[in-house]
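User: I've been going back and forth on whether these two constructs are worth ordering. Before I decide, could you fold them both?

Assistant: Sure. I'll take them in the order you sent them. The first construct and its structure tokens:
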Amino acid sequence: MTGDLSLLAAVRFVVFDFDGVFTDNRVLVGQDGRESVWCSRADGLGVEMLMRSGVPALVISAEKNPIVTARTGKLGLECIQGCDDKWAELERVLAGRRLAPAVVAYVGNDVNDRGCLTQVGVPICVADAHDEVLPLARLVTERPGGRGAVREICDANGLLLVADEV
């Protein structure tokens, strides 16, 4: 991951976008209209280790999709879907948890993540994020979305170690 990894020392909550972060941003549509996406099992194990270490995580997705429900459910991740204004929703969540944006890492990949990326303490983009949001990131993964980027973040030097101290 590129950027100052010491930023992760302050993180107490990690929020992920889904499409383009947990997936490679592609969708396979069958002739019956059913959709499928590719996700990395390594990402799932990374999330499990992150949560087991005491760092809670959340997915906020603009799209409402049974794929998101199924994957986040399997991973035991809290998930908010169908969210047009991700920052307004995240702000509400943070108020409920009594967390300041400064202790939050947000992982995104596209322009609809801009609000969250500009408001949290540790904005992170996946390697293949849209050109308009990459400059907003303080950390950028080496792996693209859906190909181990989530695991890279969960394994990042400091994030799991900080959780052990909490």
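The second construct, handled the same way:
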Amino acid sequence: MERMAPTIHLLPGMDGTGELFAPLLRELEPMFRCIVHRYNPMVAHDYEELFGQLRTDIAGSGPHFLVAESFSGPLAIRLAADLGVDTVGVVLCASFAKSPHPVALALARPLLRTTFMRRAPQWPVVTALLSGRRHKVVEQLLRRALGGVTAEVLAQRSRAIAAVDVTADLRRISVPFLYLRATNDWVVPARCAELVRRHLPGVVIEDVKGPHLVLQVEPVLSAGVIRDFVESIGFRQE
């Protein structure tokens, strides 16, 4: 027997603004009740602090799905392991349980400081996130999102990614879990999905053709994958 789908909590990428979910929301909101979580763009919280904030916001809110993009994947993994029965499903998109480039980020750690992030041009970031593609609407959305976040915050989040490892939490997750993998991702390599599978054999991996920002470039396809996942575990749309 199908049940009405619970709320979907959307956890944003490294910008933390939630603004980049706009294309996906246009596709999801006619089907599901969605809540976008936003991280303070002026305060350099680490993963532990962000986890505490999200846990407070989500715990006790009733059954829900977690949809986490990129940077927020480790947070969704910890929440799913911690919140128990309230989390009924998890979707990770172009994300990771452990630093996607541990050696490179460790070597670059001295550069991951506020001064460097303040001076670094945006175009290499935009190019990498879109895998060299041009997408005027998404580029504008991305530049606005990044422009609203301080260099200190971006530096802190980069350092947090360099050190993160929540693979042990994957082994405590018992709810359905979907990994939406972008096939042309220049930022998070395909092996990150396989690492999740190694620690969580029941994970479903779905490939969607697109760059790291696949939710923005291919919102219709991405929303369809999320919808099918929700329905596959016995829930129906609103």
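Notes on the second construct follow. The mean pLDDT is 89. The longest helix spans residues 219-232.
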